[in-house]
Amino acid sequence: MKEISKQIRFVVASAENKLHRITDDEAGNKPNPGKWSKKEILGHLIDSAANNHQRFVRAVYNKADSFPLYNQDDWVRIQQYNNSSWELLIDFWSVYNRHLSDLIERIPEEAKSSLCNFAEPQPVALEFVITDYLRHLKHHVDQLIA
To answer: What is the pLDDT of residues 22-46, one digit of tens each?
Structure first.
């Protein structure tokens, strides 16, 4: 878990300065009506952090066996990230992920196999959820700084 934690810190630190170079107007620009703006993508990453934060903590004490489905489009639509400050979104995302990396580093080894279920047919191990969180983070950060 320490390696994943380190990688999250690296992704955030590497992206932060690049994100700050994007203007608020550029960040709010939608490439087309059906696509998310950079603000919405970063908002989605904040939502992902919030949802996974719950999963990580609850899995450690074996209470992650039943989570509602995360409807990403509704979360982004309801929170209206395009009306938020780009700088605030960057800062919040950065701090939240540094917190999650600290949490991940502290997860006991025996909790890695704890099962998580979020409206899927089969539960998955906490270790998979954390590894997938990093994969998802990298994917969207690559979109943001491309």
So the answer is: 999 999 999 998 999 999 999 999 9
The CATH class of the 2-145 domain is mainly alpha
How far apart (Å, rounded) are the C-alpha atoms in residues 141 and 146?
Answer: 8
Q: Report how far apart the first and last C-alpha atoms of the chain are (Å, whole number).
A: 28
Q: What are phi and psi of 124, to 5 degrees?
A: -130, 160
Would you say 86 and 23 are in contact if contact means Cβ atoms under 8 Å apart? yes
User: CA 74, CA 77: separation in Å to the nearest integer?
Assistant: 5
HEC assignment per residue over 23-84 = CHHHHHCCCCCCCCCHHHHHHHHHHHHHHHHHHHHHHHCCCCCCECCCCHHHHHHHHCHHHC
Q: In whole angstroms, what is the distance from residue 85 CA to residue 106 CA?
A: 32
- The segments of the chain whose pLDDT lies below 50 read none
**DSSP secondary structure string for all residues of 121-135:** SS-EEHHHHHHHHHH
List all residues 6 or more positions away from 141 whose beta carbon is below 8 Å from its beta carbon: 11, 15, 45
